[in-house]
Input
Amino acid sequence: EAGVVQSPRYKIIEKKQPVAFWCNPISGHNTLYWYLQNLGQGPELLIRYENEEAVDDSQLPKDRFSAERLKGVDSTLKIQPAELGDSAVYLCASSSGPQAADTQYFGPGTRLTVL
Amino acid sequence: GDSVTQMEGPVTLSEEAFLTINCTYTATGYPSLFWYVQYPGEGLQLLLKATKADDKGSNKGFEATYRKETTSFHLEKGSVQVSDSAVYFCALRDYGGSQGNLIFGKGTKLSVKP
Output
């Protein structure tokens, strides 16, 4: 069974440029999460989807961050414009449903560097 | 709000040494507790969990006991191997707070030398 797929694995951009990250969850997993992981810190939830609905986006900085999961499968997280402080690892995870959120399956992450 | 505090790393041990990584938590409700592990170049994986007080989670020789009286969930292993080198994250899920989302500690990096 394929795991959570993320791309790209690494991205280097200059500040004020836009950037997008893509995630494909495990097949059949209805719940999808985007996390931010700063260096030396644990993951922090940005947004959680149940199918195509964003059920918790309270931690998403909506002035520059956006996300979508149009068909309830794969998802895209976008930053526009990027700032120096956005340099971090962006993790995607999925679970089979909200009741199974204890066992989240994580992708390898996208490491973003903003110059 | 809910939070998790782990001992700071890095922790460096020789093979077959005993491992303890301390974790304490603060929660408004009655959380479930977890240890996740991140091997180099890979995503986080659930290592073990405990859902109520005095429960013991175990997996791959690792154990942790949910201690409500001390609000702790320390990770232990009797004899570590080089392959255990990874970053370990303690986490909680509080159904009464944090909207049921996972709250992670900062992680503890473990290096095991042969």
Remarks:
- DSSP finds no helices and twelve strands in chain B.
- The interface with chain A takes residues 4, 32, 34, 41-46, 49, 51, 89, 91, 93, 99-102, 104-107 of chain B (CB under 8 Å).
- The first strand of chain B starts at residue 3 and ends at 6.
